[in-house]
Write a structure and sequence with these properties.
The structure holds 2 protein chains of 2 kinds.
Chain A (H helix, E strand, L loop, with lengths): L4 H18 L5 H26 L7 H20 L15 H19 L1 H7 L4 H21 L9 E2 L1 H11 L4 H22 L1 H11 L1 H6 L4 H27 L1 E2 L6 H14 L4 H17 L7 H15 L10 H4 L11
Antiparallel strand pairs in A: 1-2
Chain B lengths: L3 E10 L2 E11 L4 E5 L6 H8 L7 E6 L2 E2 L5 H7 L1 E3 L12 H7 L9 H6 L2 H20 L15 H13 L5 E5 L7 H18 L2 E5 L3 H7 L2 E6 L2 E6 L1 H6 L1 H8 L5
Parallel strand pairs in B: 3-8, 3-9, 6-7, 7-8
Antiparallel strand pairs in B: 1-2, 1-4, 4-5, 9-10
Helix pairs in contact in B: 3-5
Classes of the chains: A mainly alpha, B alpha/beta.
Chain lengths: ~325, ~260
């Protein structure tokens, strides 16, 4: 019985969120904030796989988000909406109910392949040098989309609102909230399973001693490939959700600032802690909203809090521990592996 | 067929020949020693055998397969495991996880299997955990299963490293200075451990060691190298009496 506690809680929370959005218990502003919170959770947990578990300093995570955002937007607009870019929709708009999540997955797959841009150099390069490569990858990706005139170039790409409203026409439920929540749970679930397996532990082995890993039969190149593709693929899904919620994407939204935001969340939460990454994404989004009345001073207070945290707790909120390490009794309710 | 056959092995770093014309053969089941002064090229030989360095010349054939061009993890999968001079455990992972990761070459499932917990994944993971625990129990490390190596004393870390190498089920185990940094009580324990491992697992062991007590009491055959060349080989008694070896270790004047 107890092993169903956590899945049941997760399902109940999702249902509650959707009901709350449906019946207007939460206003639109709060709903949007919650959805951005989930996107931040995906971004920080997926980046944590690289920066925390594999110990690389990847600072171009938003680039992969950009790929996912564009590819999923293009797919869903071309298929389900009338647009100036592609003309009439290729499929009946109502099919978006099934097609939209698939387009998000397509964005994720495209972003995973964009991750190869970093994965291949990582076979030979580590540390600071790889950090430069990730930075370069971020710029390359943005430049590509800025120069792609057929999807709007620097002006951005839009039309996703039509797809979302087409879904609403079929069945009037808060679709975006539903899918954002579902993909966030999916991300944490996949990462949790991957990191527990003997295959996923190889990521930590590469971090702690790459030479020993190679000598102990671990195919380190394959591990790096899988880790980078998984991480950037999940970032791509986050990008697709982001684009569909806003209804508009612009290459400049995925610059180094966005990458830094994801990185800050990873370091705030604690390197290599999945629960830490979730927690810090919640905290950062929450702080951003709570401190909104401060106006521009928000960006003095939040970085200052970060400086203080790094001074007094350099390992981040959770260090490299998980929730189950801090509250061992939770193990009774869920097999944390 | 010989288990390991090394012929004419040479490696040059720039102009320096670190190892030249090294020869060695294992029939299977031996316990052989490799000794020599500091910088003689002993670890370099091990690094070539385990696939970490690419030799400039010569050949290494393990169990009928030439290892030239193979990556270290592929060489390990053939059945050569090793330990390191300075312990190289994954310090922030539990002892059990250290040993689980070393089963990588026979994982038997892919990334998708691991996401969706396929039946194959479940049986393989259960098997990996069982064999890992078996090795841990066999080496009397049961108490430290969930401990991180950082928290263990040096002697136990050595033992964990040997356990990790054994969990690969190697046919040949390379031990690079297993007694380095151990106190005399630990050295006694190590000698009996290596002897036990050799008999229990019926494998060939090749070790580099500076402590003569370890080498002389364990090895059946010893090779001595200096400046990358074999200068002598023989049984422990022969080596101890060999003037070339004494010269290499102590220098000319003392004789």
């Amino acid at each position: 019985m107890q092993r169903f506690t956590v899945p049941a809680l997760v399902a109940a929370a999702g249902l509650l969120l959707c009901l709350a959005s449906q019946y207007g218990w939460l206003d639109l502003y709060v709903q949007t904030t919650i959805m951005f919170l989930f996107i931040n959770v995906i971004m920080s947990t997926s980046l944590n796989l690289i920066n925390g578990n594999m110990g690389e300093f990847a600072c171009g995570h938003a680039g992969f988000m950009c790929v996912g955002a564009y590819v999923s937007s293009i797919v869903s607009v071309a298929l389900f909406a009338k647009s100036t870019y592609f003309g009439a929709p290729l499929l009946p708009p109502g099919w978006a109910v099934v097609g939209m999540p698939l387009s998000l997955l397509a964005g994720g797959v495209a972003a995973a392949f964009a991750g190869l841009l970093v994965a291949f150099p990582s076979f030979r390069t580590r540390g600071d040098y790889l950090a430069i490569v990730t930075l370069a990858a971020n710029y390359i990706i943005i430049s590509v989309f800025v120069n792609l005139d057929m999807v709007g170039g620097p002006r951005g790409f839009m039309g996703m609102k039509k797809v979302v409203s087409a879904m609403g026409d079929v069945l009037d439920i808060p679709w975006m909230m539903l899918w954002t929540y579902a993909f966030t749970v999916f991300t944490v679930f996949i990462l949790r399973r991957f990191l527990w397996s003997s295959l996923g532990k190889g990521v930590m082995a590469v971090h702690q001693d790459e030479i020993a890993a190679e000598i102990m039969s671990v195919n380190t190149n394959r591990i790096k490939l899988v880790a980078f593709m998984l991480s950037s693929g999940l970032a791509g899904i986050a990008g697709g959700l982001f684009a569909h919620i806003l209804g508009y994407v612009n290459p400049s939204a995925f610059g180094i600032l966005k990458s830094t935001e994801a990185m800050v969340m990873v370091y705030l939460g604690g390197m290599g802690s999945l629960t830490g990454a979730v927690l810090s994404a919640v905290l950062m989004t929450g702080l951003g909203e709570v401190l909104r009345p401060l106006g521009i001073f928000k960006w003095v207070v939040i970085p200052l809090l970060l400086v203080l945290l790094m001074q007094f707790r350099p390992a981040g909120i959770m260090g490299n521990r998980e929730l189950s390490d801090i509250f061992p009794r939770l193990r009774r309710f869920y097999k944390f592996k | 067929m010989a288990l390991l056959e090394i012929k004419d092995l040479t490696i040059r770093f720039g102009g320096l020949a670190a190892v030249s014309e090294f020869e060695c053969a294992f029939e299977g089941g031996e316990l052989m020693g490799l000794i020599g002064p500091n910088g003689a090229g002993k670890t370099t030989v091990f690094n070539m055998v385990s696939g970490f360095y690419r030799p400039t010349g010569g050949s290494i054939v393990f169990d009928g397969t030439p290892t030239a061009g193979l990556k270290p993890h592929q060489v390990t999968a053939l059945g050569i495991a090793r330990t390191f001079q300075n312990i190289r455990l994954w310090k922030e992972m539990s002892v059990l996880d250290n040993i689980r990761v070393a089963q990588y070459y026979r994982l038997g499932y892919g990334v998708a299997g691991c996401f969706f917990r396929s039946r194959r994944y479940m049986t393989r993971e259960a098997e990996i955990e069982r064999t890992s625990r078996e090795v841990i129990d066999a080496l009397e490390l049961t108490r430290y299963t969930d401990e991180r190596p950082t928290n263990l004393p040096y002697g136990l870390q050595r033992r964990v490293e040997i356990a990790r190498a054994l969990s690969l089920r190697p046919k040949l185990l390379l031990l690079d200075e297993p007694a380095a940094g151990l106190n005399s009580a630990d050295v006694e324990g190590l000698i009996s451990l290596i002897r036990w491992v050799h008999e229990e697992y019926k494998l060939s062991i090749w070790m580099i060691e500076h402590q003569m007590k370890v080498v002389m009491s364990l090895c059946q055959w010893i090779k001595v190298i200096d400046f990358g060349r074999i200068i002598a080989e023989g049984t422990p008694e022969q080596i101890q009496a060999n003037p070339e070896v004494i010269k290499a270790y102590l220098g000319d004047e003392n004789i």
